[in-house]
Amino acid sequence: MADDKLKTVANKVEGIADEAKGRLKDAAGGLTGDLGLQAEGKFDQFSGMAQQEFADLYEEGEGVVEKAVTFVRDKPLLSLGIVSVFGLLVGWLVFPRGKRS
Description:
The chain is mainly alpha-helical and about 100 residues long. The chain is built from three helices and no strands.
């Protein structure tokens, strides 16, 4: 679990660094009139922001999974009932009973 937190923080830091690098490239391209460098900078900015957002979503997902595990551990019979009803509904939708002659 601690390794996951460390990887998430590392991804965020890498995303921040990529975004900053992209901003510098964008500014340098704007000053020199190099459209290629400017486009590369914008791509790096977008890549860094996407990496940061992915790390945030990963953290949120871990929190949801932890809540679900705690719920199942605290209320196993209710969890079994919920899963059973869900399974019956999915089975009914996927395999509807047809008319038999």
